[in-house]
Amino acid sequence: MELDWSIFFAQFISGLCRAMVLFLMASGLTLVFGVMRVINFAHGSFYMLGAYLAYSLTSLFATTPGSFWIALILAPLAVGLLGGLVEYLLLRRIYGKEHLLQILLTYALIFIFGDLVKMLWGVELRIVNMPPILSGFVALAGQEFPVYYFFIIGVGFAVAVGLWLLLRLTTLGKLVRAAAEHRSMVEMLGYNVNGLFTIVFMIATWLGGLAGVVIAPTVRLSLSMDMDIIIECFLVVIIGGLGNIWGALLAALITGELYSLGILVLEKYAMAFLFGLTAVIMILRPSGLLGRGVN
Amino acid sequence: MRIGTKWTVVALSSLVAIAICIATPACVLAEKPIKVGLIDSYTGGAAAFTKPALNGWKMVIEEFNSKGGFKGRKIEIVTRDDKFKPDEALSHARELLLKENVDFLAGTTNSGACLAVSEFAKQKKKLLMVHMARSERITEAKGHQYVFRGSPSADIEGSAGGAFAATTQFKKWYILGEDYEYGHSIADNFWKGLVRNQPGVEKVGEAWPKLQETDYTPYLTAMMAKKPDAVYIAFGASGMVTIMKQAKLFGLTEKVAVFAFSLADSAFPRALKDSMPVDVYGGSNYLWYYPDSPGNKTFVKNYLDFTEKLGEPDPYPSGIGAFSGYCCAKFLIEAILKADSVETEKVVKALEGLAIDTPIGKIVMRGCDHQAETPSFWGKIVKVEGFPFPVVKDVVMTPADKNMPTCAEVMELRKGDK
């Protein structure tokens, strides 16, 4: 195939788009693991709830011009609050207990939320309409791209920058980083680590909800969407190094681009690249790209 | 007469009554319903199609029951959710047979699940009526005495689509399919049908994203790089909505001619709403507005009345769901009546070659391979004045027999598979 740069560029943009979707999901997963040492299998459920809430909110405000933006603000907030409740009522009871219990609990949450969504929204296909302002096209380097691609990419970068600022510049961020290093020390200094964990879990589930709303206009909503995306997100988290947000960003970019550009080379077997990459990284760096090894 | 004698009389007469009862099946069996165990995916993306299918079954069965059923026995449907997974479908089939003692098995939407249940039905010598799964292997290579399909197979739909596509004279084709049984099966048959009718077409590329993929963006950009004139989208019911949303977002329908079977089905424009693409080519096994005949109008009205009673009025019965369920229920009931029995072997015999009346005319269950000869309807989907959503304007109907392998070919396939 003749090398056409505009095609290469188009694949690059779509890869970036995919990477940002993965990052939005993976950042919440890895944040919870890094700080709380909990593998939250139910992260996909919060994502699904975000998408379904976006459906309800956009239907409720269907006549209001900015219905999507209302959903973009309110749905993740609602999901984050629910996350806070889950942490306060359930997760808090199992810190320090064996990991099996965590897996059991977060896995059970998948079923509970799955049935909840089924009860509230039913099994019919639900879709969220594209906000009119984002449904146009942008011409770039001889190719046309949907505006929504750039919206997704923009949200992804905004979240990355926002998380960086939060963790570097605020007291909360410093506490989060400190608690991740040495929980008992932070406790001894008189800080309320339990409250801190609630906030971290709320931020993570807010991110999951946000991912759900951002994806919602591009997919059908279904009861299996919680599981459809989660495996790739776990791969990203593992490649990046468990608990490392920048690792997740790097891994998301690599997997997104590898996948997208891989299609150009071997369109039939694009998925194989991702699993191949995971295998190679697990052999060369078992703790992930930016992971610090298991202690 | 003393009290003792009186009791003796009572006891004796009840004994006689019981004896008579045992001798006449009507008495004992009056209470016992004929059970159909329906295994399908009631959660996940497919649920939007399995519910209308269940409605189709129930509509026929309710009418049958209200007229007294079969010798006083009513038909009862027992449903199980396989969550679109073959292993779950199989364990439900086992449970339905052993615990629920169902008389017949029916289902599924997932072709893999269907093949698993079909193998089980073969071992247990129980009749399985397939109502949505499309893989041609179900009635061809893997077909057997006890499996029937009252809905179309992928080769009926695929080759009808290919034959129709040949009339549009596009030269360079790209195939984008979901990487599972149905996706490959319908794409292969489409391609065969196209090549047979239009020699000289060229396939410039193909790609197979995994099932339940969330983001097809990289596939769409890569596909356009191959500069096809037309693309065939070989997606299952649940993936179709996502790919069409993203195709619309990407502006695909303005850049290239898009063909997709089942897109003409009423389920899609209603699910997709504003995201429903127009000026695309689609087909279906049934259209609620075609043919514009009294029979079809009555069916649509009956279905609306029936679903209204359930609290979910549906004025546009879907082909994949409602119509397929309706046909399968009808095949089963008419076979029971013809056989004058619910014994599997007799019903199997009765089903072979059985013709049922449907809103789109007679449909025959082919005797040799147990595949219903269902027609296909194709055309360009456009906005038409007076319709609630985009519909096929100039419908091209292809009868099934043109698109089915011959009986001899099917038997050859079955032999080769052993």
UniProtKB/TrEMBL annotation, chain B:
It comes from the Bacteria. Signal peptide: none annotated. One of its GO terms (biological process) is amino acid transport. Residues 33-381 form the Leucine-binding protein domain. CDD domains: PBP1_As_SBP-like. InterPro entries: BCAA_transport, Leu-bd, Leu_Ile_Val-bd, Peripla_BP_I. Keywords: Amino-acid transport, Signal, Transport. The keyword Transport applies. Belongs to the leucine-binding protein family. PANTHER family: ABC TRANSPORTER SUBSTRATE-BINDING PROTEIN, LEUCINE-SPECIFIC-BINDING PROTEIN. This is ABC transporter substrate-binding protein. It comes from Desulfomonile tiedjei. The lineage of its organism: Bacteria, Pseudomonadati, Thermodesulfobacteriota, Desulfomonilia, Desulfomonilales.
